[in-house]
Amino acid sequence: MSAEHATPLLDRVRTPQELRALDDEDLPQLAAELRQETIDAVSVTGGHLGAGLGVVELTIALHKVFDTPHDKLIWDVGHQTYPHKILTGRRDRIRSLRQGGGLSGFCKREESEYDTFGAGHSSTSISAGLGMAVARDLGGRKQNVVCVIGDGAMSAGMAYEAMNNAGAMDSRLIVILNDNDMSIAPPVGAMSAYLARLISGETYRQLRNWAKQLAKILPKAWERRAARAEEYTRGFWTGGTLFEEMGFYYVGPIDGHNFDHLLPVLRNVRDTQNGPILIHVVTQKGKGYEPAEISADKFHGVNRFNVITGAQEAAGGGAPSYTKVFANALIEEAKADEKIVAITAAMPSGTGLDRFAEAFPDRTFDVGIAEQHAVTFAAGLAVEGYKPFAAIYSTFLQRAYDQVVHDVAIQRLPVRFALDRAGFVGADGPTHAGAFDVTYLCCLPGFVVMAASDEAELVHMVATAAAIDDRPSAFRYPRGEGTGVALPKRGEVLPLGKGRVLREGSAVAILSFGARLGEALKANDQLASFGLSTTVADARFAKPLDEDLVRQLASHHEVLITIEEGATGGFGAQVLHYLAREGLLDQGLKVRTLTLPDSFIEHDKPQAMYERAGLNASGIVAAVFAALGKDLGAAEAAWLA
To answer: Which of 137, 179, 377, 534 has the most CB atoms around it within 10 Å of its CB?
Structure first.
């Protein structure tokens, strides 16, 4: 290392402007340092490691070639943006990643001007980028708009809708297809790199345009033949015929870890003034860190880990996760019923369906990042008498709401939705929180909506959903490990619309829907210490609602508290609607509905997030005292005395 470079290059690069001052020859050293900094940071915080390691060189090249933040750089999803954050003035905070009060694990516009578009769900970048490109054109500005999208995200229909629109509009837009699974690309080497440089250059583009103009003066039949021959000759050597058909100029594939390949192509594309361009870049997920390179999921999402060995810290105390409990329960049901099939939208391990696939490979379907298709595909299976379980994170089912309404609910098809990640999800923050499913499902006629209060209840709800064969159903459960309760070998079918009472009291009633039941029981103990006799009930169902139970609680208690891990308009709204319709609010009953707040709560540990939302034992106790018009502070002081 020269005296000039005695200081690590990364210490000299705090912003992309400083990066652009480096010579091209310095970039491999910078990449090595950036890769090591990313590994060290994520070993402390946990997070999405493999995707970021795969785009280190691409991230450097993009900020080197393009004038960010004037030029707009849009990252799809954001799992891969940790190196981007380090290079854009956030290195000093990178070890706060995904921690309470720290950096987001995704792009966030409020966090940096370099985060052009906030993301958390897949396949949005091209649509957003096209919107920015059209706004640029309408405003008469000169700037580049660059979208980076992974090959997995390209399985979503939204990406193709955006590309089709962009190709038709002929607005200047640069799309980088980051192919990190070798699912699209032919072998990448010197010849493909040479061809990519050639066809991205102005000389080739001028020759191609000249050939097109020549073809136009030929008879129509010859014009069509010449155009088709040119297109498919290029497709034979370089791939990309599909993208050309959609109106994009295709360049690639090129080696995403080789600056000698990346920089010339990016500069050629930057300097051209023609319409939409797609650059096909091949990378290796987890590049440069052997434990990630050899891992089955390339260290997609990790806990804190030992940098030397790659060994990850255990996630919790040993109780099985709700996801694992769901998978095992579904396997037991499928052993008894050959009509049960399972569907996931690119999340087999996240939903536990990888375990189901080991037992029933022919009855498991991973449709890719395509939730809309997943739902209607499940509807088609249901039409033919099969019993589909669509295991989709609550937050991702939002993407298929029209299909849930139109293709499932209206036709009253018995599709069963297993909604993982209900409620707060901790470090992934508001983009991944399961906040709205109870609200958007309860308003659909005929839907059965359940929530598990613990793992044993989840096992019963899997069995219940399997037995519901005349209407759609959904059951929700949280992320992470359960309470450690004893589990039945196979679930029992619950009576539809019937809850259960766990504690009997006379003054206060707490009606819990979902996994806040444990906090309700803690609140019961605290209220008892203040002399308030309390009933605690588990609703189990938001729809059909246990009206007999609600009437009983309303008629025999002064205060009724509902609590749920969902937004306003969900379970509490169902209870209030029933009470109002029956005139039970006219008898002096004091009702409080505890829901997620009407705001997006930033990432933190789930316990801290629920405390901030008032959805814990102390929040329940405070709501009871507020309903009674009593001073909780004075009561606590008297109790402590």
So the answer is: 534
- Token pair of 420, please? 């993982």
Residue 482 lies in a domain: no
- pTM score: 0.84
* pLDDT per position as a tens digit, 185-241: 444 455 445 555 655 666 555 655 655 565 566 565 555 555 554 554 455 445 567
What does each C-alpha distance from 98 to 285, 427, 608 come to in angstroms?
21, 5, 13
pLDDT digits (tens, 9 = 90+) for 465-524: 999 999 999 999 999 888 999 999 999 999 999 999 999 999 999 999 999 999 999 999
Round to whole Å and give the CA distance between 159 and 153: 8
Residues annotated as part of the active site: 285, 371, 399
Q: Give me the domain span that covers residue 214.
A: 3-294
Quote the distance between the C-alpha of residue 265 and its chain's center: 32
Question: Do 367 and 245 reside in the same domain of the chain?
Answer: no
Q: Is 503 helix (H, G, I), strand (E, B) or coil?
A: strand
* 36 and 142 inside one domain: yes
Ramachandran angles phi, psi of 19, nearest 5°: -60, -40
Tens digits of residue pLDDT in 83-106: 999 999 999 999 998 899 888 888
Q: 484 in a domain, yes or no?
A: no
| Same-domain pairing of 269 and 209 | yes
Tokens of 376: 């209607």
Domain count across the chain: 3
Q: Is the residue at 280 inside a domain?
A: yes
In one letter, which amino acid is 146? V
What's 431's domain CATH number? Answer: 3.40.50.970
Q: Which two tokens mark 205? A: 């583009």
Asked if the structure places residue 490 within a domain, the reply is no
Per DSSP bridges, beta strands 559-564 and 590-594 are parallel
**The total number of residues written for the chain in this structure:** 641
CB 295 within 8 Å of CB 429: no
| Residues ≥6 apart with Cβ < 8 Å to 401 | 440
Helix or strand run (H / E) with residue 174: strand 174-179
The answer to which of 120-129, 256-265, 274-283, 316-325 has the lowest mean pLDDT is: 316-325
Structure token pair of residue 361: 């490979």
Give the largest Cα separation in the chain, rounded. Answer: 100
Tell which of 433, 460, 476 closes a domain.
Answer: 476
Q: What angle do CA 415, 416, 418 make, to 5 degrees?
A: 145
What percent of the chain is helix, strand and coil (3-state, nearest 5)? Answer: 50, 15, 35
Do 525 and 394 share a structural domain?
no
| 536 strand-pairing partners | 503, 510
What are the DSSP E strand ranges found in 465-608? Answer: 473-476, 500-503, 508-513, 534-538, 541-543, 559-564, 590-594
Helix axes 617-628, 517-529, angle to 10 degrees: 50
Look-up of token digits 């032919």 = 186
- Classified as helix, coil or strand, 13 is coil
What's the token pair of residue 83?
């190196």
